[in-house]
Amino acid sequence: MTKGFVLIAHDTNEYSYGNLSSLCARIIQKHSKYPISLITDHDTKYDNHIFDKVLFAETTFNQRYDIRLDSKIDWKNTSRSLAYNLSPYDQTILIDSDYLMLNNNLEKLFDQTTDFLCHNSYVDVSNEGYFQTSNWMGSAYISNCWATVIYYKKSKYAELIFAMWKHVQENYIYYCGIYNIPNIPYRNDYALSIAMHMINGQIIHKKFIPWQLNHVPLQAKVITTKRGLILTYDKYDAKLEVNVDKAFLLSNSNLHFLDKKNFESVANELLV
Known about the structure:
By secondary structure, the protein is α/β, with parallel strands linked by helices. The chain has a single domain (3-211), classed as Spore Coat Polysaccharide Biosynthesis Protein SpsA, Chain A (Alpha-Beta Complex), CATH 3.90.550. It has 6 helices and 17 strands. It has helices spanning 17-31, 83-86, 156-170, 172-179, 188-199, 260-270; strands at residues 3-8, 36-40, 54-56, 62-66, 71-75, 91-95, 99-100, 116-119, 122-124, 136-137, 142-143, 146-153, 213-216, 221-225, 228-237, 242-249, 255-257. The protein starts with a strand and ends with a helix. 38% of the residues are buried. The model has no long low-confidence stretch (mean pLDDT 92).
């Protein structure tokens, strides 16, 4: 069976996702022998020498609030539900372009017997609770499924999940009303969570990626040193009544960056 990674990139005025995906792919190549394909559009700029295949998909504009820019920005995130049909591989690992793969741990997913896996739990690597969200969502108390990393096989079960995901996306306001979750902006995590709940007979799904998703929160910053990656952030010291700098060495773990500029700088430095 063919195996490979798939990334998605659609440039906006604020962020070059094509550049992020090119950096992400080059980092993956340092730790994995499997090919990497890209889902994108004709307006996005990327390094086409890196990718095994480039696949084109239409996407629509959404808007979300960017805390770094303190404004609403464009967000093109509607092609993710098309990844099942677009992937050229029998077994696919679909990951965000701002995901830093620092080891080959994800390759273990190719050995799973399940046809579809995603994360349903996360850890804030600062351990300060900057990034907080429940592992459960909505009035139906369904599992919060993260679309950041997804493993799937070409199979009827995975095909049904992606088809339902697209259906939920196309009727997003309706389903958000039923599940009592916010409908602005459109979020793939929410649409996938609803799709998983429906496909699995509206019961709590129990098969997920067997380790947590590591988030680097916006309040923290990763820097590169000779010793490895260092996480830095400010923390209020009640005794001193001031913010103090905190820093600690990160283990060689895969990281999902919420700050795309920080991801870009770290990836560039690791590739020097």
